[in-house]
Amino acid sequence: MENPFKANNKEEQNKETEVTEQMETETADENTETESEEKVEETNPWQEKYETLNNQYIRLAADFDNYRKRQEQERENLLKYGAENTVKKLIEVLDNFDRGVKAIETVEDCEKVKECFNLAHKNFNDVLAKIGLEVIPAEGEEFDPNLHEAVMQTPTDEKPENTIIAELQKGYKLGDKVLRPTLVNVATGV
């Protein structure tokens, strides 16, 4: 016969084994939770750095986009209103021409008309000079292909070779930029 207490012992052993296994499982779960918390803590600073850098990148991209739009707007305004100061100065000349037209209607003396015309012409040239427009000197100067355009060549002994004999049309430059080259007649050797 079997020992009746032994059967109970088997049941108790089974229960103890189950309890032990359960405790081991819970301990393992706790260990894995602790490990995962440690991993979260380890990755958390990197995640924070990533988020910080990502936010900085997004702000920088938005700032650059705003800068680009602002520059584009300023460029459009410059093209649209860039001549504003020049036109304001030219309005003064236009006023003088209007006054001259009214004065010519009542004046019968041709000398007065010449005076008005010369005064308006001088005023116009002064305004253009203030803006920065310069006449390119030509006659008597040495030919410079950057400033002059030779439309004629005349063989002569009176002037040195490559010297400008005559100015056929004035040339102008604004600062260092040539707006229109001077049309000239250049001396060549005989």
Describe the protein in words.
- The chain is α+β, with helices and mostly antiparallel strands and 190 residues long.
- The chain has three domains: 1-81; 83-131; 133-190, Head domain of nucleotide exchange factor GrpE (Nucleotide Exchange Factor Grpe, Chain A, domain 2).
- The chain has helices spanning 4-81, 84-106, 110-131, and strands at 133-135, 148-155, 164-169, 172-174, 177-180, 182-188.
- The strands form two sheets. A three-stranded antiparallel β-sheet has the order 1-4-5.
- The longest helix has 78 residues, at 4-81.
- The model has no long low-confidence stretch (mean pLDDT 80).
Quick description:
This protein is of the alpha+beta class and 190 residues long. It is built from three helices and six strands, in the order αααββββββ.
What is the topological layout?
Blueprint: H1 4-81, H2 84-106, H3 110-131, E1 133-135, E2 148-155, E3 164-169, E4 172-174, E5 177-180, E6 182-188
Strand arrangement in the largest pleated sheet: 1-4-5
Number of separate structural domains? 3
How do the helices and strands follow one another from N- to C-terminus? HHHEEEEEE
Give the end-to-end Cα distance, rounded to a whole number of Å.
150 Å
Helix content: 55-70%
Average pLDDT reading: 80
Shape: elongated
Strand content: 15-25%
Instruction: Supply the number of helical segments.
Output: 3
- pLDDT under 50 segments (min length 5)? none
What does the radius of gyration come to? Answer: 47 Å
Largest sheet: 3 strands, antiparallel
